[in-house]
Write a structure and sequence with these properties.
Number of helices of chain A: 4
Shape of chain B: globular
Number of helices of chain B: 10
CATH architecture of one domain in chain B: 2-Layer Sandwich
CATH superfamily of one domain in chain B: Histidine kinase-like ATPase, C-terminal domain
Distance between the termini of chain B: 62 Å
Order of helices and strands of chain A: EHEHEEHEH
Number of strands of chain A: 5
Number of domains of chain A: 1
Helix content of chain B: 25-40%
Structural class of chain B: alpha/beta
Strand order of the largest sheet of chain A: 1-3-5
Strand order of the largest sheet of chain B: 6-7-8-12-9-10-11
Oligomer: heterodimer
Structural class of chain A: alpha/beta
Shape of chain A: globular
Order of helices and strands of chain B: EEHEEHEHHEHHEEHHHEEEEH
Largest sheet of chain B: 7 strands, antiparallel
Helix content of chain A: 55-70%
Radius of gyration of chain B: 20 Å
Largest sheet of chain A: 3 strands, parallel
CATH class of one domain in chain B: Alpha Beta
Distance between the termini of chain A: 27 Å
Number of strands of chain B: 12
Chain lengths: 96, 319
């Protein structure tokens, strides 16, 4: 299991797609390749854009299928962040 | 190029202003003003500043200002962008709660810094601040990723007490939406490319459903939806085309994947703008909770994907 605290890298508003990509490539994909579970911790993050969340997780769903969602937990999300994550997760599954 | 600033330009009446823009002689810029007073939307300011960055300041001819609201242009930093002296001395007021002066953003890190700093500047409640920083971030990131403009994005915003509205303008002088969409699609004209850009799931970066690892093709649809839910104006102008989302007439909120199904006006015969300009208003009286808006948006997005997938289903061949 890996625990990724996003606030330290993205600040209170998660919108920087370059950072999202870096986290995906350097932390999330290597963890999944080792069959580890992931906790994405949104503590202290009060907002996120659809672009950020898309850049963070869409490629994981595309690469590993929707089963990858059994391995990822989203922690400490407020209602806005929950809504954005749900949009991206639904969107990727509907598009698949 | 020639541009005239009339006494009043807001998104509802912006069409004559856009029609009056003369894009010929792109290495020169002549700016004239209404003699009496001016009240102009930040979209107009961002456009003029973006044009100013393209032209050597020695080739910019700026009419001597007489209008009483000329201080506003100075405070919004327009003359700094044009590189011309206004001969106006002003006492700088603290920007908090009033406006975001013209700002040029050329890279991702500057955008993150800008978005972090802009919300406290506007002194807004969270339910108002959330959509505003969302809109600014997504629109500016669009410019940085797709416009290929060497000058980046020019943004400005203003709070209007009378209407209790935040008005935002973002302009770039990049490749424009038609060229960006033409990477993966073949829009027949500028207006068709605007329609595509506003439709969820369509991105110039791929024809694949779901987009790429970087782009979902939903950014502009989100922005237009925020305006639609709050019954606000939203304008996008690129090439010769402009799409304007008009205020809702009824109370029923309905989001459409196809922008032409929204209450709108459109033009495909405007003077060509090399790049893209977006203007949006956000009325603070009607702002819905952002999370509720997102739930509504999710439903529309799902329906749009289903419809598009269904349209691609192969039909049985009965003989």
């Amino acid at each position: 299991m890996i625990h990724v605290k996003l606030f330290k890298q993205v600040g209170p508003f998660a919108e920087n797609k370059d950072i999202a990509r870096e986290i995906r490539l350097k932390k999330l994909i290597p963890a999944l390749e080792k069959n580890k579970n992931i906790t994405l911790d949104f503590e202290n993050i009060d907002g996120a854009t659809q672009s950020f969340v898309h850049a963070l997780i869409s490629d994981l769903i595309r690469k590993y299928g929707s089963e990858v969602l059994d391995k990822i937990q989203f922690k400490s999300c407020n209602d806005t962040v929950k809504a954005i994550i749900s949009i991206v997760v639904d969107y990727m599954q509907e598009s698949g | 190029m020639k541009i005239h600033i009339p006494n009043s330009v807001w998104l509802g009446n912006i069409d004559p202003f856009l029609r009056g823009f003369d894009p010929s002689l792109p290495n020169e810029l002549e700016i004239t003003f209404n003699k009496k007073w001016m009240s102009i939307h930040p979209m107009v300011l961002s456009m003029i500043a973006a044009l100013g960055l393209q032209v050597d300041s020695s080739k910019i001819q700026c009419e001597k200002l007489e209008a009483t609201s000329k201080h506003y242009l100075e405070r919004m930093k327009l003359f700094d962008f044009l590189g011309v002296k206004s001969d106006i001395t002003i006492t700088e007021h603290e920007a908090a709660g009033r406006f975001v002066p013209l700002t040029q953003i050329k890279d991702s890190a500057s955008l993150t810094k800008f978005v972090t700093e802009v919300t406290p500047l506007l002194h807004l409640e969270p339910k108002h601040a959330e959509p505003i920083r969302y809109i600014m971030s997504e629109l500016i990131r669009n410019v940085l990723e797709h416009s290929l403009s060497k000058h980046g994005a020019i943004v400005s915003a203003q709070y209007y007490k009378k209407s209790n509205t935040i008005r935002i303008g973002i302009a770039d002088t990049g490749i424009g939406i038609w060229k960006s969409m033409n990477e993966s699609y073949n829009p027949k004209d500028d207006l068709e490319s605007l329609r595509m850009a506003l439709t969820p799931g369509i991105t110039g970066t791929t024809r694949k459903e779901g987009g790429t690892e970087r782009n979902a093709g939903a950014g502009l649809f989100f922005i237009k939806s925020i305006a639609s839910v709050n019954s606000d104006f939203f304008v996008i102008y690129s090439g010769k085309a402009m799409y304007k989302l008009l205020k809702r007439t009824g109370k029923k909120i309905q989001l459409h994947a196809d922008p032409l199904k929204d209450r709108h006006s459109k033009r495909n015969d405007l003077p060509g703008w090399h790049g893209t300009v977006v203007g949006i208003d956000l009325s603070l009286d009607t702002t819905q909770e952002f999370s509720l808006l997102l739930q509504l948006l999710n439903q529309t997005l799902k329906e749009a994907i289903k419809e598009r997938k269904k349209a691609r289903y192969k039909k049985p061949q009965f003989i």
